[in-house]
Specification:
Blueprint: H1 6-9, H2 13-26, H3 33-59, E1 68-71, E2 82-85, H4 87-107, H5 118-134, H6 138-156, H7 162-193, H8 198-206, H9 213-230, H10 240-246, H11 249-274, H12 284-304, H13 308-329, H14 332-359, H15 365-376, H16 393-410, H17 416-429, H18 437-465, H19 478-496, H20 498-512, H21 515-523
Antiparallel strand pairs: 1-2
Helix pairs in contact: 2-3, 2-5, 3-4, 4-5, 4-11, 4-14, 4-19, 5-6, 6-7, 6-11, 7-9, 7-10, 8-11, 8-21, 9-11, 10-11, 10-13, 11-13, 11-14, 12-13, 12-18, 13-14, 13-18, 14-16, 14-17, 14-19, 14-20, 16-18, 16-19
Length: 536
C-alpha cells in the first residue's frame, strides 16, 4: 500500500506495536528485568503518542468524514478488513494508553518480577484491546477479543496462589462460554445477512425479507449475551468481584477497562445495524432494564462487601449497569454524559484497585479482626489522655488517595463523579420528553448506589485508618505512588476542564447518531494504486 498516506498507516500502530514488542520480549531472558521493562515502557509511550495523534486528527476532522479508514491488504470494504479511527475509537485508545502506562509503572518494582512473561502478556492484552476498538468487522472483533482474553488468562494467574487459581478457573470457564456464544452469534448474523462488515450490516438488515428477521434477531441476541457477559451485566457478571479480589492489583486495574470493551462493542454495532429499518432500536429496552438490575445488584453487593477488591469489583458492576441503562435509553444527550462517566469511573476504580494493594500492607489479620470485633460489640476505645500523633507521609498519601477514589466512585462533590451524576440528572430532567416512572427509577437507583458506596467505603476507611489501632507506616516506592496520583490527577483535570471535554463527547455522540455518514465513509474508501500507478 505504497500510495497510502502515513497518517492512515498510523491507525495500524496501536495493534502492530504491542504485537511486535510482545513477541520480541518472549525471546529476552526473564533475568533481564530492566531491559524488558524498558522495551515495554517505550512501547507504551509510543502507543500513547499514536493514540493522541489519532485523537487529534479525528477531532480536528483532518480525515474525510471525521474518521480515518485503513484497508488492510488494500482490499475495499466490505470484502477486506477495515480498521476505523473515529472520535470514539480514538478516545478509548487514549484511555487504554493512559491506564496501561500507569499500571506498567506501578508493576515495575514488584508485580512484573514475580512470574514469567508478564511483559509479553501485558502487550498482547493491549493489542487485543486496541484491536477491538479499531476493527470494523465482527469476525475480527472476535479475534481481537480472543487475543485479549488469552492474555488476560495468563495475567490473572500471574503470581499465582490457591485463591488466584480458583478464581482464574472460574474466570476462564465463563469467558470460554461467552466466546462460544460470540462465535455462534456472528455465524447466525452472517447466515442471515451475508456480511460481517459493520458498515455493510445496516443496509443489509434494512433490506432483509421478513422471513429472515428471526434468524438475525436470534444471532444479535446471542451476540449481545456474549458482550454483556464480558460487560458484567446481572446475572452474567457474578464472576467479576471474585476475580477482581483474587487478581494482582495491576491486573485487576486492567480488568476494569476490559469490562468496558463489551459495552463499547454494543455502542459501536447497534446504531449501525439497528439504527433504522424494521429492527430500529432492537433490544435496547431490555438493555435498559438489564442495566437497572445490574445497578441494583452492584449496590447491594458493595454494601455487603468487606474487602477492597470486592468493593472495587461491585463498583465496576455499578459503573457497567449505569452505562447499560444509558445506552438502552437511546438518547444522544445521555450518551454524552455516559462517556464522561465511563472515563471517570474507569480511572478512579483502577486507581482504587492499585491503592488496595498498598493498603493491605498496613492491615494485619489481627488488626482487621480487632476492628470487626469492636464494631460488632460497640466497643469504644478510650485512651488515657489525648496525645497528638504525627501522621507519616506514606499513611497521609494512602488516606488522601483513598478519599479521592471514594469521592469519584460514589459521585460526591467536587470531583468528576459528581459532575457526571449531576449532568446525568440534568439531562434526564431537562429532556423534551415527559419524565417517566422509568426515569425516576433510574435516578433513584443511581442515588441509592452512591449512598451504599459511601457507607461501604466509609466503613472500610474507618476500619483501615482509624479502628485498626496504632498503624505502622508502610514502605512505598515512588513507582507505586506516582501512578495512583496520576490517575486521580486526571479525575481532577476532568472536573476542571469538564466543559471542553463534554463538548468533545457531544461531538462523539452526534457522530454515532449519524450512522449513514459512517457507512458511506467506510464503504466508499478507495483502494490505493500500486507502485507504478496501476492497480495494486
Amino acid at each position: 500500500m505504497s500510495g497510502t498516506p502515513w497518517t492512515e498507516h498510523l491507525i495500524l500502530a496501536p495493534v502492530l506495536l504491542p504485537l511486535l514488542a510482545g513477541a520480541a520480549l518472549i525471546l529476552v531472558n526473564e533475568a533481564r528485568h530492566g531491559l524488558k521493562f524498558s522495551i515495554n515502557l517505550g512501547c507504551n509511550l509510543l502507543l500513547l503518542a499514536a493514540a493522541l495523534a489519532l485523537f487529534w486528527r479525528a477531532d480536528q476532522e483532518l480525515w474525510p468524514g471525521t474518521m480515518g479508514v485503513y484497508l488492510a491488504a488494500n482490499w475495499m470494504a466490505p470484502f477486506g478488513i477495515a480498521l476505523v479511527a473515529d472520535r470514539l475509537a480514538a478516545l478509548m485508545l487514549v484511555l487504554t494508553a493512559v491506564l496501561s502506562l500507569a499500571v506498567l509503572i506501578f508493576s515495575w518494582q514488584g508485580w512484573s518480577r514475580i512470574g514469567v512473561h508478564f511483559h509479553s502478556l501485558f502487550l498482547f492484552l493491549l493489542m487485543g484491546i486496541n484491536g477491538a476498538f479499531l476493527t470494523h468487522d465482527l469476525f475480527n472483533l472476535f479475534v481481537f477479543f480472543e487475543v485479549m482474553l488469552a492474555a488476560s488468562y495468563g495475567l490473572v494467574l500471574h503470581g499465582y496462589n490457591v485463591t488466584r487459581i480458583r478464581a482464574s478457573l472460574q474466570y476462564i470457564a465463563i469467558n470460554l462460554v461467552a466466546s462460544l456464544l460470540f462465535l455462534i452469534g456472528i455465524a447466525l448474523i452472517y447466515a442471515s445477512t451475508g456480511t460481517l462488515n459493520m458498515a455493510d450490516l445496516g443496509p443489509r438488515v434494512a433490506a432483509l425479507a421478513p422471513a429472515d428477521l428471526p434468524l438475525l434477531q436470534t444471532g444479535a441476541l446471542i451476540l449481545a449475551l456474549a458482550f454483556l457477559t464480558k460487560g458484567a451485566m446481572w446475572p452474567l457478571g457474578f464472576w467479576l468481584p471474585t476475580t477482581y479480589a483474587a487478581a494482582s492489583p495491576p491486573v485487576a486495574a486492567m480488568l476494569v477497562l476490559m469490562t468496558k470493551v463489551g459495552i463499547y462493542a454494543i455502542i459501536r454495532i447497534w446504531p449501525l445495524a439497528f439504527g433504522a429499518g424494521p429492527l430500529a432500536g432492537f433490544a435496547l429496552e431490555g438493555l435498559f432494564w438489564g442495566g437497572l438490575a445490574t445497578l441494583l445488584f452492584g449496590s447491594v453487593g458493595m454494601l455487603a462487601s468487606q474487602e477492597a477488591g470486592r468493593m472495587a469489583g461491585y463498583g465496576a458492576i455499578i459503573s457497567s449497569g449505569t452505562l447499560m441503562a444509558i445506552v438502552g435509553a437511546n438518547q444522544p444527550a445521555l450518551l454524552t454524559v455516559g462517556f464522561y462517566y465511563l472515563l471517570g469511573s474507569t480511572l478512579a476504580t483502577a486507581a482504587f484497585l492499585l491503592l488496595a494493594g498498598l493498603i493491605e500492607r498496613i492491615r494485619t489479620p489481627g488488626s482487621a479482626l480487632l476492628a470487626l470485633t469492636m464494631e460488632a460489640f460497640a466497643i469504644e476505645e478510650k485512651p488515657e489522655e489525648p496525645v497528638g500523633v504525627g501522621i507519616p507521609a506514606a499513611l497521609a498519601f494512602l488516606g488522601l488517595a483513598f478519599a479521592g477514589c471514594a469521592l469519584v466512585i460514589t459521585g460526591l462533590p467536587p470531583l468528576s463523579g459528581f459532575v457526571a451524576k449531576f449532568s446525568l440528572f440534568h439531562t434526564l430532567l431537562d429532556s423534551s420528553a415527559e419524565v417517566t416512572r422509568e426515569t425516576w427509577l433510574f435516578m433513584g437507583l443511581i442515588l441509592a448506589s452512591g449512598l451504599t458506596g459511601v457507607i461501604a467505603l466509609m466503613r472500610f476507611g474507618v476500619r483501615t485508618f482509624w479502628a485498626s489501632g496504632n498503624l505502622q507506616a508502610p514502605s512505598l516506592q515512588h513507582s507505586e505512588a506516582l501512578p495512583i496520583s496520576f490517575l486521580l490527577s486526571l479525575c481532577i483535570a476532568m472536573t476542571l476542564f469538564a466543559s471542553p471535554l463534554l463538548a468533545f463527547l457531544e461531538r462523539t455522540s452526534e457522530d454515532l447518531a449519524r450512522p449513514g455518514t459512517y457507512v458511506e465513509q467506510v464503504l466508499s474508501s478507495p483502494v490505493r494504486p500500486g507502485p507504478a500507478g496501476g492497480p495494486p
